[in-house]
Write a structure and sequence with these properties.
By secondary structure, the protein is of the alpha+beta class. The chain starts with a helix and ends in a 6-residue tail after the last helix.
């Protein structure tokens, strides 16, 4: 019999063995899914219902399906058309905001046009753009209103014909009756106004009253508004805040600044944190800086990101972050919303690096032509020294992106810009090309560049000029659209193109070696191992003792490779399946579809490279090509790991935008392709994010298994995710089942002397 104490201890040990990945899985889900979801949800809810006043969204009721018999009878009688959703109620869709004269009248401010409708559910940047269009108050979309009628709220169009008609003959959608009471309503203008054919007045206390209304209750309730007209017009879904917004949200100005400008705060925090990390670890600037020779010739493309976010001087990081703060206050929330501003910041890091590399390449080619045409040895040596300096010059800092935003800010100002601080009379106005309102130009950024070069001769002229060029291209709309420039598409896509260029220009095929030959050898050995495995099981008694140790070890290794290969191919096939299905749930041009295409390409190339490594290893090839292939495989898996992390975070943010603004998103969708919120959330969270997380775990396990995790900034940024995913992989994907004991193989060595063994038997135990 076992005592209760012993049984309790045994159960605790079993629970620890059963769930060794609970803690790392929770950590990984919190970092990549829950945290981005919560931050995005709070930000969008704040912008939609707090910062911009009272806003209500009106859209279709997705769960409405009238009875077939009733619908057919109504069609026969001519009450409704054969299509349940009519143009009359579809024109009511959109955003409604409060009137300037009365906070209890909601005017139709925005209605999505046919060009705005999307195929499926949008990405987070598209949702933020929809919200921006909805909260714009430049003009009214239609004469529709949400107003209080006796004891309920109603939606209907207000025009000259409806004013003279009775309410029963005008199509309207009303909520259920609500209990109302007298409510103080603040007014800013006159004490009366004319609406809906009735003169509404206010008393001295600010209470709304007229012949039909004796009071007012709260704000429009969210829910279903049923049609009051004859026929079978489908109901409308209305979403409104439960109470009046309060702005500013907090009394602390610093905290309110963080709430209003989250993207600016994130960029400043990242740059300051990395500057502290580099200073604390005493990192050499040349190891992370932008350098033409290292980026182009040694294929270290990550330097385009690390160089832009690296600062090694207190004055440098302070000046840049103060400039970022000023530009963020001017651009974020006015010209661009926070999500667009954040996405474009990441995109400009890549674009400025590409343009800078292109300018350096053009300069080097120009000097090469000078060298070829020059006959003077001294002049040729001077040109060659300039070429070497261009290749080896390092640059760091966020200044290129800041110059791009300076261009955008300058050309959006209505007043002339004075770029020199102590010369207030030296100002430049923005010129606009006649007939092309989008094509503007201002000399102020170029003058600022020249002035900065004179004051600080060590600053990178080419880097800042690349930022100015990107700024003009961004303002003119000549850069790729935001869905292509999104962080989950652009960074992974550029790295993938770089890997392809490296593969085409590398020396892997030197020496007459063929990857396919070794891959076929691996497959042949694998099937041979399966046949041997069947024979081994059939004659389990005598043949086992006759097999050599090396044969059994090779057989075990081949079985292990077979299990790993089956796991990789299964994940690849599931990723391909969900990529195809993504076209049904999202728009084909959405960044969610494009990012999944990038991840699938990464995974396919990574699986092929890993199979090459296995083939070289099992075929006994002992030369430099195996190490070279391991390095290439590690680069592909690291690129996939980084792209998968970014994609999962952006997908979580997109789900948050759907949950926060479901009615707004459904309003922008094509009615013939409308998909419910629950199916798309299940698909995104379970199949899409779940498969990408599984690929993340596999990538981490392979990187640790082949000792290709690397170091530097990659490990510093992704260390928590690498650790958690490796622990999950050890618990889920460990396929080798080692025996509890094995027979002794090889020559042994005695530990200790006979005297020591006589004194203590623990040596032999």
């Amino acid at each position: 019999r076992v005592s209760p104490k012993v049984r309790t201890q045994g159960s605790c040990i079993n629970m620890a063995m059963i769930s060794p990945m609970t803690a790392p899985a929770a950590k990984l889900g919190t970092l990549l899914v829950l945290l981005p979801f919560a931050i995005t949800y709070l930000h969008l809810h704040y912008n939609a219902f707090v910062r911009n006043g009272m806003i209500c969204f009106v859209g279709p009721h997705s769960e409405y399906s009238p009875p077939t018999t009733t619908l057919l009878a109504a069609v026969d009688e001519g009450l409704v058309s054969s299509t349940p959703r009519t143009n009359e109620d579809a024109s009511l869709f959109g955003a409604y905001s409060t009137s300037r004269h009365d906070k209890q009248i909601f005017i139709h401010r925005y209605s999505p046009s046919s060009g705005d409708s999307s195929w499926g559910w949008p990405s987070v940047s598209q949702s933020a753009t929809m919200l921006d269009k909805s909260i714009s108050r430049q003009k009214n979309a239609s004469n529709s209103r949400i107003y209080f009628d006796q004891n309920r709220w109603c939606i209907r169009k207000v025009n000259s014909s409806s004013l003279s008609s009775s309410p029963s003959t005008v199509a309207s959608w009303c909520s259920a009756p609500v209990a109302f009471e007298k409510t103080k309503i603040p007014t800013r203008h006159s004490n009366s106004f004319w609406f809906d054919g009735v003169n509404h007045e206010y008393d001295d206390q600010g209470v709304w009253f007229d012949a039909f209304h004796t009071g007012y209750a709260g704000y429009p309730p969210s829910g279903i508004y049923q049609s009051e007209a004859a026929g079978l017009s489908p109901p409308l879904q209305v979403s409104c805040p439960s109470s009046a917004p309060r702005y500013p949200l907090v009394q602390n100005q610093n905290l309110q600044y963080v709430i209003d400008h989250p993207a600016t705060c994130v960029i400043i925090l990242v740059n300051v944190a990395l500057a502290f990390h580099y200073w604390n670890r005493r990192v050499d600037p040349s190891s992370v800086s932008k350098q033409y020779a290292r980026i182009v010739h040694e294929h270290e493309w990550w330097r385009g990101i690390t160089g832009a976010t690296a600062h090694f001087d207190l004055l440098h990081v302070g000046f840049n972050m103060v400039s970022m703060d000023n530009l963020g206050r001017e651009i974020e929330g006015t010209l661009l919303n926070s999500i667009e501003f954040l996405m474009w910041n990441f995109a400009l890091v890549v674009y400025t690096t590409i343009i800078m590399i292109a300018m350096v390449y053009a300069r080097i080619r120009y000097l090469q032509r000078k060298i070829d045409a020059c006959g003077n040895a001294e002049i040729r040596a001077t040109y060659e020294m300039k070429q070497v300096k261009l290749r080896d010059t390092s640059s760091v800092g966020y200044s290129a992106v800041l110059f791009a935003w300076m261009v955008v800010s300058t050309m959006e100002r209505k007043m002339p810009t004075c770029p020199i601080p102590f010369a207030k009379d030296v100002c430049f106005a923005t010129y606009e090309v006649p007939g092309l309102s989008w094509l503007r130009f201002n000399w102020s950024p170029i003058v600022s560049l020249i002035f900065c070069q004179i004051i600080f001769p060590r600053v990178s002229f080419i880097g800042h000029l690349a930022g100015i060029i990107c700024g003009f291209l961004l303002h003119w709309g000549l850069l790729p659209p935001l869905e292509l420039s999104s962080v989950n598409v652009l960074i992974g896509g550029v790295f993938l193109i770089g890997l392809w260029v490296r593969n085409e220009t590398s020396t892997d095929k030197m020496g007459g070696r063929d990857h396919d030959e070794h891959l076929q050898t691996l497959i042949k050995d694998f099937f041979t191992a399966n046949r041997r495995n069947k024979q081994y099981v059939a004659v389990e008694g005598d043949d086992e003792s006759q097999q050599s140790i090396k044969q059994r070890r090779k057989l075990r290794d081949l079985r292990e490779v077979g299990r790993k290969q089956w796991t990789l191919l299964t994940i690849r096939n599931v990723m391909a399946f969900q990529f195809v299905i993504s076209f049904y749930f999202y728009g084909w041009s959405s960044s969610m579809v494009l990012s999944q295409c990038v991840l699938l390409a990464y995974f396919v190339f990574a699986v092929c490279s890993t199979q090459f490594v296995w083939a070289y290893t099992l075929c006994g090839i002992d030369d430099d090509i195996l190490d070279h292939e391991k390095v290439r495989s590690g680069m592909i898996w690291r690129g996939y790991f980084m792209s998968a992390v970014i994609s999962i975070i952006v997908d979580s943010m997109s789900v948050a935008s759907w949950v926060c603004l479901p009615l707004l998103v459904e309003t922008f969708q094509d009615p013939s392709r409308r998909i419910g919120l629950l199916p798309v959330c299940i698909f995104t969270l379970v199949l899409r994010i779940g498969v990408n997380l599984m690929g993340l775990v596999v990538a981490s396990k392979i990187l640790h298994g082949t000792v290709q995790v690397g170091g530097g900034i990659f490990t510093a940024l992704f260390s928590p995710i690498l650790t958690s995913s490796r622990l999950i992989g050890d618990a889920m994907l460990t396929t080798t089942k080692m025996p509890l004991w094995t027979a002794f193989e090889g020559k042994g060595t005695r530990l200790g002397t006979r005297a020591e063994s006589d004194q203590s038997e623990r040596v032999w135990l």
